[in-house]
């Protein structure tokens, strides 16, 4: 368990740590000499980027759910041609009794994106606000989960691609991708960028012991 | 003693005791990328793990002979990817109608109208970026493994390789294939091609590569091998 004692951070020591390679530099440096990454001090102003990508992702998530993800044609349209949005696709899977796959698709393309939007918004709101060590640990956990799980939402786009490439049986059956595939892919990419723009060091800046050392006070 | 023990208290005590680090320039120090806690850099033995005293994140986890292993795994993954691209991927048939697709075919599924940009994106995520990352890793590590000075821009190559990691989605693609197969199973008979198995093997190779990878060790090695990253640090002299 983490000892509940004051910890000297690079920021408080008047230094800046490189988020890419961990090297520590004087605070007025702008690029890391070792890895070439830009040096950014932990600052709430960086959250603007998080919110911008977050909003872009949310906007793209709307058409992703309204437009069809794919169009299925069986027997040259004689047996019907169905257009399915994400949710309709899940319902269809349940209808055919594929409960396990229905759960995977539902979790990957509905639960995960929504949970991701909520978590990033919450993290960005509480970042830099006062917290206890335990709360900070919880927030870091949530951040790590969001960062890890974000890319897995792309699974739906791949499924559509594989099905559309594979199921081209002329008269018998064919599957074509729908416009929602693009907006869904963009939504996933934007939320990934939003999560990547979030600086986890901000989680720790609000720890109470900070009030003893009055540094720049810019947050 | 692993790096992880070296926290704030130790820093304050050790400050005048030894000159292994410098609180004004940051020499000999390392900041946790997740929580900014300062640590004193120390050499770790292979197999030791350094964790951040504050957030518990892994700071360094060197493995003996890791560079050679990583290079071998990167080459393996390039060869497998070659197979995955050129062999047939999946094949289905029903009522005398059949269709086969390669990995390119999968990406080309989006090749009409507004979906066109997705072709490039999908191609990059499942083939382009994994290959590029393997290449960048070999470029960075090959000279280091032989104890020579790194190639030019090795630091940039390795940084890019790390930044592109979340966008290289081969393993997600494999799970996507599994989902697609179940969806198709009721509709037609499916045959798995060699490319599919190459992709599955690729996932295992990537997992192994991840286990051997310790970014901190590689950064230190690049620095110790005296690489002028892009000529900038010669202006202020070497850090050690």
Q: What does this protein structure show overall?
A:
The complex is a heterodimer of chains A (219) and B (240). Chain A is mainly alpha-helical. Chain A has 2 domains: 1-41; 42-212, Butyryl-CoA Dehydrogenase, subunit A, domain 3 (Up-down Bundle), CATH 1.20.140. Helix content of chain A is 48%, strand content 9%. Chain A contains 6 helices and 5 strands, in the order E-E-H-E-E-H-H-H-H-E-H. In chain A, the strands form 2 sheets. A 3-stranded antiparallel β-sheet of chain A has the order 4-3-5. A two-stranded antiparallel ribbon of chain A has the order 1-2. In chain A, helix 1 packs antiparallel against helix 3 and helix 2 (86-95) runs antiparallel to helix 3 (99-126). The longest helix of chain A is centred in the middle third of the chain and has 28 residues, at 99-126. With 240 residues, chain B is mainly alpha-helical. Chain B has 2 domains: 3-9 and 16-62, no CATH class; 66-224, Butyryl-CoA Dehydrogenase, subunit A, domain 3. In chain B, 50% of the residues lie in helices and 10% in strands. Chain B has helices at 8-14, 66-86, 103-108, 116-145, 154-163, 170-185, 194-212, 215-224, and strands at residues 29-31, 38-40, 50-51, 58-60, 90-94, 97-101, 189-192. In chain B, strands 6-5-7 form a 3-stranded antiparallel β-sheet. In chain B, a hairpin with a 6-residue loop joins strand 1 (29-31) and strand 2. Mean pLDDT of chain B is 79; it is low at 1-17 and 228-240. At the A-B interface, strand 1, strand 2, helix 3, helix 4 and helix 5 of A face helix 1, strand 1, strand 5, strand 6 and helix 3 of B.
